[in-house]
Design brief:
single chain, 20% helix, alpha/beta, Dihydrofolate Reductase, subunit A
């Protein structure tokens, strides 16, 4: 099993603005400008928080966003409005441990999902794209408990206006 975080942040480290909006990202570029397709083809499972899911659910054909993966949403809601997504709850680290040894797991977004996995030293790869945007305030990517977490820089790529940093544990 390998656990990946793959996502984009602003230069000042925010996943979203103060209202959880992603306009800054959509105005900067799109997935076709990155290595997203090659990355997604290697994934078996996606895990996200409810706010990330809500962004996806706003799309006209949300079920086509992650068509080949098992998609889990950590939420208190038992039912989700979009086909292809399954609600999950409880301890995300225990949930991930139960998915099996042969799975590539993508933590799609949300520091509330990522932080417990970082605390448990379960994140194997951080693939972070930096957008040339400064928000000044917003929802930070990293909110794990205090303590040093070290990763190794494996690769740096440029996709249009995005810099992609690939780290491994």
């Amino acid at each position: 099993m390998s656990v990946f975080f793959y996502g984009c942040v602003t230069l000042d480290g925010y996943l979203a603005d103060k209202t959880h909006g992603l306009d800054w990202l959509h105005q900067t570029g799109n997935a076709e400008d990155t290595g997203y397709d090659a990355f997604y083809q290697k994934m078996d499972v996606t895990i996200m928080g409810k706010r990330t899911y809500d962004e996806i659910a706003r799309l006209e054909d949300a079920s086509s966003v992650y068509p080949t993966t098992e998609n889990y949403v950590f939420t208190h809601s038992a039912n989700l409005s979009r086909k292809g997504f399954t609600s999950a709850s409880g301890d995300v680290s225990e949930f991930v441990s139960g998915l099996g040894p042969d799975k590539n797991i993508w933590i799609v977004g949300g520091n509330t999902v990522l932080a417990p996995l970082l605390n448990a030293d379960m994140v194997d790869y951080l693939i972070v794209q930096l957008a040339p945007v400064l928000l000044g305030a917003g929802i930070p990517l990293f909110t794990q408990k205090k303590g040093v977490k070290r990763f190794h820089l494996d690769q740096v790529k440029q996709y249009g206006q995005f810099a992609e940093l690939i780290y491994s544990r």
